[in-house]
Structure formats: C-alpha cells, structure tokens
Design a protein that fits this description.
Helix content: 40-55%
Oligomer: single chain
Radius of gyration: 20 Å
Largest sheet: 6 strands, antiparallel
Length: 218
C-alpha cells in the first residue's frame, strides 16, 4: 500500500490539472475606476482608423464588444429602470446597456430615445442586414451561417442585447433580467432568455459600413 500511495497521488494531481484546463476561464473584472481612461483610449485609437479599410475598423469594434466591454460590465446588476453609465456601480436595463455602451465607445446616437423604444426600432436605426427568425432553432441556424468577428443587436419579445460571434461560436452579451442576474456574456445555446423566446429580430453592427465609418471619423 505504501508503494502505491505516491503513484496514486501523482495520478490524482494529473487529473486535477486536466480538469482545471477543461474549465472555462473566467475573465477578471476590471476596475470600474479605469473605465474613463478606457473610453479615452478608444477615442484616440478609433481616430487613428479614419480612412482605414472597413475590415480593420470592424475588427477593432468587434474586439471592443467581445473582449473589452465584458471585462468591465459583466456582473453589473439588472433593473428595469437601470441606466447607470459606470460598470459595477448602479443598475442597468437591457436597452440602456446597449445604447450606453455604444455611446461610451464614441457612437453619436440618440442614447436615451433608442433605449426606450422597441428593440426592433433600435435595430432598424443602427443595423444593416436585418433578419427575423421564429424560434431558437431557426435563430441558431442563422448564426451558424454568419462570419466570425461580427457583432449584432438582437431584439426579442421583451428583451435585447448584443450577439457576438467569434471562433468559438455565438454569444449573447446582455443585461439579463432572469433572476436579476445582470450583465453576462453566455453561449446562445445556454441562454435561458433566448431559449424561452419566440420571435427574434437581428441586425448587423459590424456590417454597417456607414455607421462604423462615421464612428471613426468623429
């Protein structure tokens, strides 16, 4: 038994390491006090993209929504009347989450008005390539056909948020009203908010060349 014990401990240690590698990495939440500096850096960098090819501008915007915004906003509480401008401080409703963060990135939009209208109306103002789907299966099939490094706004029966697609698949980035979970980025196949929804409207932000062109030039 004494001879077997070291080998057993080694085997357990190896299994633990493999299990740790299999667990999805949880992104650390950035200090909300650095959010203003982040916005300033975005203003500076996007100005440097003026006149650059749309693909380059689109990739930078995708990176901001897919990586930078979740690092600040994940975990910020949801409230129906929430409209905080600072992540981790106060509450944020789903519509205001989309329009506030777009405004924070430097988009010249009617932030309050678009947050309060039906999500379909917001999508028609901000997006191109608008598509409607009935049911989650149809929506998932549509997203399977979309390119990587792309950002969308999705409008649901009573909810809205971003859809981002990267090399690992499609994600729903939104202020989740279910159990008041707040801001979360989750796989679309694992989202209760999407699963229980019937009607979907989705439009592309990264595909909107006019919107992104104006964004970097102002």
């Amino acid at each position: 038994m004494k001879r077997l014990l070291p080998a057993l401990l080694v085997a357990i240690a190896l299994m633990a390491c493999q299990w740790d590698k299999a667990r999805p990495a949880q992104a650390a939440i950035k200090d909300p006090d650095s959010y203003e500096a982040f916005k300033t850096s975005v203003t500076k960098h996007k100005a440097e993209l003026t006149g650059k090819p749309h693909k380059e501008v689109s990739w930078y915007f995708f990176h901001l929504v897919n990586d930078s915004l979740p690092a600040y906003w994940n975990g910020t509480p949801w409230d129906f009347y929430g409209m905080t401008r600072t992540p981790q401080k106060g509450d944020i409703a789903c519509g205001y989450f989309v329009t506030n963060t777009l405004a924070d990135l430097g988009f010249n939009i009617q932030r309050v008005k678009l947050a309060q209208v039906a999500s379909g109306d917001m999508i028609k103002v901000l997006c191109t390539d608008i598509k409607t789907c009935n049911g989650i299966k149809s929506f998932e099939a549509y997203m399977d056909r979309q390119p990587v490094n792309s950002v969308y706004i999705v409008g649901l029966d009573f909810h809205t948020g971003y859809i981002v697609k990267d090399a690992e698949g499609s994600w729903f980035f939104h202020s989740n009203y279910i159990k008041r979970k707040g801001v979360i980025k989750e796989k679309i196949g694992e989202s209760a908010a999407l699963a229980k929804n019937k009607f979907f409207m989705i439009g592309s932000l990264t595909g909107n060349k006019k919107l992104l062109g104006e964004w970097v030039s102002k």
